[in-house]
Amino acid sequence: xxxxxxxxxxxxxxxxxxxxxxxxxxxxxxxxxxxxxxxxxxxxxxxxxxxxxxxxxxxxxxxxxxxxxxxxxxxxxxxxxxxxxxxxxxxxxxxxxxxxxxxxxxxxxxxxxxxxxxxxxxxxxxxxxxxxxxxxxxxxxxxxxxxxxxxxxxxxxxxxxxxxxxxxxxxxxxxxxxxxxxxxxxxxxxxxxxxxxxxxxxxxxxxxxxxxxxxxxxxxxxxxxxxxxxxxxxxxxxxxxxxxxxxxxxxxxxxxxxxxxxxxxxxxxxxxxxxxxxxxxxxxxxxxxxxxxxxxxxxxxxxxxxx
Length: 307
Known about the structure:
This protein is an alpha/beta fold. It has helices at about 20-30, 75-85, 105-110, 130-135, 140-150, 165-175, 195, 230-240, 295-305, and strands spanning about 10-15, 35-40, 55-60, 60-65, 70, 95, 115-125, 155, 180-185, 220-225, 245-255, 260-265, 270-275, 285-290.
């Protein structure tokens, strides 16, 4: 009997018109670093993929460099998602780019209908220069605030266009509007892919892989240990914003579940049975903003969850 393949993680990318979704997706494709990414868009015209990345066109499918693909789904999102789930080899990650007027949380809930796919994160792009104005607009303000409220991670783009004190005030405002989300400030969508695409099947050693400037914004910590944990208690502790943690992944030995995978994105944690062979020892890796990630607090949370 063949082993059941683990579900493919899906990152839902939302945000109002002009926030920078196109720029972000192209950045992730240029820095895929061996990942086979599948980009799903409503229409190719809405998301112009860099010509340098396109290797071939085949109907509603663009074949991209490095084994990546881009598919359009028109009005049949579920059908396109099901098709991605049957691709061989399967993609390592799906990027589902929403319309600027869509609610990404509603799109993410669609994934519960498809066992071959699994929500990784809801990423909402926000234009730092115009966000407060958009959120107060009588026509689109409610939608903009709903998009932010549904995010796991808010990619606060175009931060070079506002002063430092304005950025600090904006981040404080976002804490009130979307307290469950973690905010990632950036310019031109340049962020370390590990923040947006998960941490892979096995947590890597401390240190971010990307060899581009975005990695300098972030710090990572990797902790190996030899004891069982209460994974649910650990997930709850890792959700505390005081840790400065943006993402975490653990291969853990839970006292009740046995070996499992803990995925933490902002305040949302998920615990699943570990597919495949157990590692030599448990490990937890986390990523946060440089200067804000509290490694000692993370280690205390791990120790307090000991079973």
